[in-house]
Amino acid sequence: MKAAANSELSFEEAMEQLEKIVERLENGDVPLETAIDLFQEGMKLSQLCGGKLEQVERKIELLIETEQGFQKKAFAPMNEEKGE
C-alpha cells in the first residue's frame, strides 16, 4: 500500500486494514519477507490512525456544567490533567 493511498483512508478503513494485517501476522503462516512488508504497512496505518485521533482530540470541546450554565473547555487527555 502506498503512502498517498493511506492518507485517503478514513480512520475506520485504516483500522480495518490494520486489524487484517495483525491477524495475518499473528497466524504466523506468512514468509519472512511478506511479514516484514506487512509490518511496515501496519506501522504506516498505525501512524495514520494516531494522526487522525490527534486531529480529532484538538477539535473536541468538553462542556462543563457550572452554576452559571455550561462552559466550553478545550479537550485535554486524562494523563495531561493529572500531570503525568
TrEMBL record:
Single GO MF annotation: exodeoxyribonuclease VII activity
Is Cytoplasm a UniProt keyword of this protein?
yes
Instruction: Extract the InterPro entries matched here.
Output: Exonuc_VII_S (IPR003761), Exonuc_VII_ssu_sf (IPR037004)
Using the UniProt record, name the top-level EC class of this enzyme in a single word: hydrolase
One of the record's GO cellular component terms: exodeoxyribonuclease VII complex
Key words, A-Z: Cytoplasm, Exonuclease, Hydrolase, Nuclease
EC number(s) per UniProt? 3.1.11.6
Catalyzed chemical reaction(s): Exonucleolytic cleavage in either 5'- to 3'- or 3'- to 5'-direction to yield nucleoside 5'-phosphates
This protein's major location comes to: cytoplasm
Pfam families, per this entry?
A: Exonuc_VII_S
Q: Which GO terms describe its biological process?
A: DNA catabolic process
Q: Which domain of life is it from?
A: Bacteria
Enumerate the Gene3D superfamilies for this protein.
Answer: Exonuclease VII, small subunit
Task: Indicate the quaternary assembly.
Answer: Heterooligomer composed of large and small subunits.
According to UniProt, the name of this protein is Exodeoxyribonuclease 7 small subunit
Cite the source lineage: Bacteria, Bacillati, Bacillota, Bacilli, Bacillales
